[in-house]
Amino acid sequence: MDALKECVQCSVCYLDYNHEDRSPRALACGHTFCTECLERISRSATPKCPTCRTAYAKRTPVPSKNFALIEAVKGLALLQDKLAAKDRELEDQQAELETMYQHLSHPVTSPNSAVSPVDPQQAQLEAQLAQTQNELELFKGAVRAKDNELRARQQAQQAELAAMASQLREDAQRERAKLIAQADALIRAQDSRLQAQKEQLDAQCRQLQEATGQLHQLQEVKGQLQQAKGQLAEAFLACKERELKLDFEARAAVAAKESQMQAMCLQAAFEIRTLHAKLDCRNMAESNGAVTSPWNQNGGQFHGKGFG
């Protein structure tokens, strides 16, 4: 019974399983505990199996109920109720038998004990007493036989309970092996998925590293382009400044040349006018028949007619 009791009790809180708040639930490692204890364990920082100390993730889904163990708990409860009823029935029968035994074993006192021994009723009473004692002995034998029968029935019931406990243990072991196989299959499938995800993440990491290298190269090229752009801007400014300087110098040279040309033009115009004046004077002198030249070579003055 103690082994059977251990099968239907939570090994953490030592309370019997039921189909409500303390329903049995099996972990992936195969050990079974009640729902309340598993919820309390899952709220800890590092959830572990209380028996084998296997660690579990904090967000592991709640394990499924161990329905085979729940049915075993129900069957054991019914069996215990039947056994308790049988025990009460046996106790009632034993109390009734003890009462009858005490009543029959009470010494019979003759109502005429004070009468003379030669009373004729004494022999009759002694005969009745002997008959009653014989009946009492027969009843004691029947009581002993009934007691032996009840003891044999109790032993048979205990043997039946032991067989049921052994069957429950075997069922629990088979269920545990089944759950362990399912957990192993789930773990292998999860490992395969995790391995595939790891390979995918590794490929993404390699692509990210390549993209990062290309980004660094692009940043270096961008820096070189910015440096070249700065150099081009400096060269452009230098060229613009030189162009402005050359333009200014060209404009200044053109202005100087224009001034020089204007001066030369004025000088030429002055000389042309002078020559025209000389020609006019000569023509006038020739037309008037003057002997002397209208232009005095010594003084450089004009002495023609009509001039002072």
Describe this structure in words.
The structure is a single chain. This protein has 308 residues and is mostly helical. Helix content is 72%, strand content 2%. It has four helices and two strands, in the order αββααα. β1 and β2 (32-34) form a beta hairpin.
Structural descriptors:
disordered C terminus, 308 residues, 4 helices, 72% helix, mainly alpha, 2 strands
Radius of gyration: 70 Å
Widest sheet, order of strands:
1-2
Put simply, the count of helices is 4
Report the helical percentage.
over 70%
* End-to-end Cα distance: 172 Å
Low-confidence stretches: 107-118, 291-308
User: Per the principal axes of the C-alpha atoms, what is the gross shape?
Assistant: rod-shaped
Structural class category: mainly alpha
- The H-and-E topology, N to C, reads as HEEHHH
Task: Give the helices and strands, then pairings.
Layout: H1 2-7, E1 24-26, E2 32-34, H2 35-42, H3 67-104, H4 120-288
Antiparallel strand pairs: 1-2
Helix pairs in contact: 3-4
Summarize the structure.
The chain is built from four helices and two strands. With 308 residues, the protein is mainly alpha-helical.
